[in-house]
Amino acid sequence: MKTAIIGTGKIGEAIAKKLIKAKHSVLLTNNKGAASLKEKAAKLGSLAIPAELSEITRADVLFLTVRWSHLKQVAADVPNLDGKILVDVTNPILDDMSYDNLKGKAASEIVQELFPKTRVVKTLNHYFLKWIDADPKVDNGKRIAFVSGDDTEAKNTVVNLLNEFGFKSIDLGDLATGSKLQQAGGPLAALNLVSYPA
Ligand SMILES: NC(=O)c1ccc[n+]([C@@H]2O[C@H](COP(=O)([O-])OP(=O)(O)OC[C@H]3O[C@@H](n4cnc5c(N)ncnc54)[C@H](OP(=O)(O)O)[C@@H]3O)[C@@H](O)[C@H]2O)c1
Q1: Is the dihedral of CA 122, 97, 19, 76 positive or negative?
Q2: Ligand 1 and 58: CB distance under 6 A
């Protein structure tokens, strides 16, 4: 599967590693441009390809891993992503580390509004970097990944990827309800959860 990372910072790189381990090619993008990502891509291996934002239409599944304060700019900068699966790993945390006031909306609903014709699926945002980066296999258990989204096919595609990474995914339902539970400040955020066999 062709994938892309929109914002290859700390979280973007951790997810790129998992995609590459599962043998998917990954276009890496950031704000500074493809040339600045050459070294990072070389470390990740031949499936990692530095790219400009304008090139991400080559991917089917795009991971959104930018800071909340940069979202509007990114939405203005990206090419036409109609129909693409947009995996929202963001949290509505401002640069001073306070929560943004979303006026009752789920953060992913705002992401969906900013990238209107993409199919948004929220996952992995509920973990700290160290748990996203770690092996999801814990003893004989699997770390849990929550998934929310309005488009069933898109959600299934993301669930398959999470399974390939080694997570046990749990579907929380749609963006309006499910994603609120897993976003920063929600009851399922920042818990290190592992599912063990019965
Ligand atoms: N860190 C965590 O533990 C954690 C856990 C769960 C979720 N999250 C969420 O994940 C998101 C990313 O966090 P992070 O810690 O990985 O942030 P980060 O290290 O600051 O990385 C952000 C990336 O976004 C890129 N970017 C900024 N503006 C852009 C633009 N206009 N176009 C393309 N790329 C752009 C930056 O590019 P440059 O490098 O060129 O500036 C950078 O590579 C945030 O929403 C955060 O809330 C973080």
Answers
A1: positive
A2: no
